[in-house]
Amino acid sequence: MEPVYRSIIGLARTVFFAQGLKFDVKGDEHIPSEGGAVIAINHTGYMDFTYAGLPARTPKRYIRFMAKKEVFDDKISGPIMRALKHIPVDRSAGADSYLAAVDYLRRGELVGVYPEATISRSFEIKEFKSGAARMAIEAGVPIIPMVIWGAQRVWTKGYPKRLGRTNTPISIAVGEPIQPFEPAAELTAKLHATMQDMLLDLQKNYTHEPGAYWVPARLGGSAPTLAEADAMDAAEARAKAEARERKHKSAAGE
């Protein structure tokens, strides 16, 4: 029994109902009823993780999400994240979070991971990092692919939140478990291809508004292409690195 997690889930469902969100979940039978597994999720918005936990409630499981350390440092969200036993990720010391995730998996937990690492501005499947594959191999557990579509309409990078009653449809698909194998690069490629196919299947049955910001360019929307989004991410990363360097020099009195 996890009273805090159960309470948070109850609160989230109340919020979802108030927002009028319409969930279509398929494949929840692929979430194992026991034992560890890496839950690999695509990343299109800030609310992805709240929706990703829904399929796990069928077998009455909880997902421990890997989230950036800053969320744990916050006075409000920090205590909640720790109570839910999520895993902080310090990008300057990623080995600690990786080892913590492997330990969770070996103890039979479900660990939620975003292989893309950051939100996809194009809403396409970005290039994957190898962490999900490596931890599955090391812990000897399967990877469960999960794809969410529609979450970007609620709140995504660069656009206002839409947290009121929007009646937004959100589709969630859970794929068959992928057993771990080496090398990690090939397992990562298989995971990427699987989730790409799952995304295309979800999009076939979803109504897309021509020209809308949340619709990929491939489907007639105004979102940047994958290449354009990658360039935007690279520019943002350079700007952040330069800002950190200026801050470091200022602190050093240079």
From TrEMBL:
Matching Pfam families: Acyltransferase
Keyword Transferase: yes
Domain Phospholipid/glycerol acyltransferase, residue spans: 37-151
InterPro entries xrefs: Plipid/glycerol_acylTrfase
Region (Disordered): 233-254
Annotated GO CC locations: plasma membrane
Name assigned to this protein: 1-acyl-sn-glycerol-3-phosphate acyltransferase
Organism for this UniProt entry: Nocardia terpenica
